[in-house]
């Protein structure tokens, strides 16, 4: 399964489902055409997902062309000059084999062959960011802790392979079914050299600053413990069912106040250095918040590690 060559054509079944949307957009009466907001929602539901850097499409891989194929997720990048980033992502993900990490399936080129695409297993429920708000009433706290445990297990494995994820967030945790989640989006993942404890970022890029530990923001150094900090933020999102009103950027801006451009970053760093942390969400039990706070120790060496977190969550779940 992992090494099969992808040589058939990729058919996008959603195109036929899109016919309806296309005709709505082309309604003769301008007042009856949908707003872009509605189009985005529609596309999301039909299986076309947008992240920060890439686009993920739902495709049918059917090399025999007889409808015996399977659904796969295909990631391509928005702009051509990011294609070397996708190559790096592919070289990372194809080395990873774990229950809680999204499975690599192969690569393909678009017509002309200039752009490479990444083919992964398709996880029908999308990311926790879409899944949790939608299914809140059917998901109890024990379930949330099971997701936390599975993420830690995937992260422990990733660390054992000397990788740092650098983009751990609810939007990058994919849902296979109600009792299984997997880590996805290895777009920012770096491997640390055997003789180093951290990865130093050289190129300036869009970073998920509200998920980053102080040493990442200040010194651009990424340790395994920096992923633990981001896990704390991810667990915060999970325990609040990815409520948009209480997303990490919202919580920060509400408590520190809005400002423009570069200033926000400086204020974030200042607040964190002075010991400011996001408060416990109403729906989060005290004992879980204690674990979140152990992920948010200022110095990386004082943070809890994924192994101890696994033990804590296993204990909660028994
Ligand atoms: P980016 O690097 O642009 O953030 P991601 O890999 O995070 O790209 O993918 C963007 C979104 O696409 C995710 O947040 C998720 O909703 C959806 N997605 C990504 N991979 C899959 C997959 N294998 N199955 C289903 N949905 C996926
Ligand atoms: Mg992403």
UniProtKB/TrEMBL annotation:
Quote the catalytic residue positions. Answer: 167
- Residues that hold ATP according to the record: 48-56, 75
GO terms for cellular component: cytoskeleton; cytosol; membrane
Molecular function terms, GO-annotated = ATP binding; growth hormone receptor binding; non-membrane spanning protein tyrosine kinase activity
- Domain of life, per UniProt, equals Eukaryota
Which keywords belong to this entry? Answer: ATP-binding, Kinase, Nucleotide-binding, Phosphoprotein, Repeat, SH2 domain, Transferase, Tyrosine-protein kinase
Q: Name one GO biological process term.
A: growth hormone receptor signaling pathway via JAK-STAT
Every copy of the Protein kinase domain together lies at 42-316
Would you identify the family this protein belongs to, as annotated? Belongs to the protein kinase superfamily. Tyr protein kinase family. JAK subfamily.
Q: What is this protein called?
A: Tyrosine-protein kinase
What is the native source organism of this protein?
Answer: Sinocyclocheilus rhinocerous
């Amino acid at each position: 399964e992992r090494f099969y060559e992808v040589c058939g054509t990729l058919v996008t079944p959603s195109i036929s489902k899109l016919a309806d949307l296309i005709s709505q957009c082309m309604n003769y009466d301008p007042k009856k055409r949908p707003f872009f907001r509605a189009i985005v929602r529609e596309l999301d539901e039909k299986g076309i997902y947008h992240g920060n850097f890439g686009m993920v499409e739902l495709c049918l891989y059917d090399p025999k062309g007889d409808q015996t194929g399977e659904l796969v997720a295909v990631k391509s990048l928005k702009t051509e000059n990011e294609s070397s980033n996708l190559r790096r992502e592919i070289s990372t993900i194809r080395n990873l084999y774990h229950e809680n990490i999204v499975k690599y399936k192969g690569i393909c080129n678009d017509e002309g062959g200039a752009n490479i695409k990444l083919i992964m297993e398709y996880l029908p429920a999308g990311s926790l960011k879409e899944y949790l708000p939608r299914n809140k009433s059917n998901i109890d706290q024990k379930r949330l802790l099971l997701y936390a445990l599975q993420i830690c297990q995937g992260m422990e494995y990733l660390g054992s392979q000397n990788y740092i994820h650098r983009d751990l967030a609810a939007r990058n945790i994919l849902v296979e079914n109600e009792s299984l989640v997997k880590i996805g989006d290895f777009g920012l993942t770096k491997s640390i050299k055997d003789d180093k404890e951290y990865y130093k970022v050289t190129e300036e890029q869009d970073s998920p600053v509200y998920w980053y530990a102080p040493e990442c923001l200040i010194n651009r150094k990424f340790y395994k413990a920096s992923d633990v900090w981001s896990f704390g933020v991810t667990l915060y999102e999970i325990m609040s069912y990815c409520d948009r009103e209480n997303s990490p950027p919202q919580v920060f801006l509400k408590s520190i106040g809005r400002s423009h451009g570069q200033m926000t970053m400086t204020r974030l760093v200042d607040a964190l250095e002075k010991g400011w942390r996001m408060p416990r969400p109403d729906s989060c039990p005290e004992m879980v918040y204690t674990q979140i706070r152990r992920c948010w120790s200022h110095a990386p060496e004082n943070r809890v590690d994924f192994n101890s977190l696994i033990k804590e969550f296993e204990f909660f779940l028994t």
